[in-house]
Design a protein that fits this description.
Length: about 220
C-alpha cells in the first residue's frame, strides 16, 4: 500500500512538473501581464460583471495582458473585456464539477489538471493582481498573493481589492485581528489598495508600472 501510494504521488509530481513546463513554454513571450480573480458564480447581468469587463477593457486598451482562470463569472468578464478591444486575453483553465465549460473570450487557453500548477502559473506571470468579490478560491488567491509579496518570494506588485463594501469586513479583521495582535506589521497594510472605480484601477497599475520599469520577462516568482 505504501509503495502504491508512493508511485501515485510520484506520478502526480511528474504531471504537475509537466503542466508547469508546458505553461511556461506557452507564456514565455507574455509581457505586462496581470491577473484578475473573482467569483465564478457572478451572472452576466450582475453589476460586478460589467465592472470587471470595464476594468479589463481599460487595461487591455492600455497594452496589458489579462489573465483569468478561464471559467464563467468574473473570469469570463475579465477575458471578455480584453477580447472586446482585441487585447491579449489568457485563460488558465481547470475542469471542476460545477464549471463544465470554459468561457469563449480567450485568445490563448492553457489547461490544467492540478490547482497547484495552475496557481503557480498565475504568480509566475503576473506583476499585478486585481481581486474582485468572490468565494473561497478568491480568498486563497488573494492571500497567496499577499504572502508571496510580503515574504519576497514574488516581486512586489499592486494588489487591488475592488468593491470596498464587500472587502470592509475582511479589512476590519486584518486591522483589528491580525495587526492589533502583532501577527502582521503596519507596513503590510500598504500592500493592499481598495477601490470601486475602473479608472482608479488603471491609474494604480499604470503608475506602478511606470515607476518600477520591471524587466517584462522577469515577472512574478522570478
Amino acid at each position: 500500500m505504501v509503495e502504491l501510494r508512493s508511485k501515485t504521488i510520484q506520478g502526480q509530481i511528474t504531471e504537475i512538473a509537466g503542466e508547469l513546463q508546458d505553461a511556461a513554454s506557452h507564456l514565455k513571450n507574455v509581457t505586462q501581464a496581470l491577473s484578475i480573480f473573482g467569483s465564478a458564480r457572478i451572472k452576466q447581468d450582475d453589476p460586478l460583471y460589467a465592472l470587471t469587463t470595464d476594468i479589463s477593457r481599460k487595461l487591455a486598451s492600455a497594452g496589458f495582458t489579462i489573465i483569468s482562470g478561464g471559467g464563467p463569472g468574473i473570469m469570463e468578464a475579465a477575458n471578455r473585456g480584453a477580447h472586446e478591444v482585441n487585447g491579449h486575453s489568457i485563460g488558465l483553465n481547470i475542469k471542476l464539477p460545477h464549471e463544465t465549460t470554459n468561457n469563449p473570450y480567450q485568445s490563448q487557453s492553457i489547461y490544467f489538471k492540478y490547482f497547484v500548477s495552475r496557481k503557480t502559473t498565475f504568480f509566475m506571470n503576473s506583476w499585478a493582481y486585481i481581486i474582485m468579490p468572490g468565494g473561497f478560491g478568491t480568498m486563497d488567491e488573494l492571500f497567496e498573493a499577499l504572502t508571496l509579496v510580503q515574504t519576497g518570494k514574488a516581486n512586489k506588485a499592486p494588489i487591488i481589492l475592488v468593491g470596498s463594501e464587500f472587502w470592509k469586513g475582511l479589512l476590519d479583521f486584518i486591522k483589528n485581528g491580525q495587526l492589533a495582535n502583532g501577527y502582521i506589521s503596519p507596513k503590510d497594510l500598504d500592500l493592499i489598495s481598495v477601490t470601486d472605480d475602473a479608472d482608479e484601477v488603471l491609474k494604480i497599475v499604470t503608475e506602478y508600472y511606470a515607476k518600477n520599469h520591471q524587466n517584462p520577462h522577469c515577472l512574478g516568482l522570478c
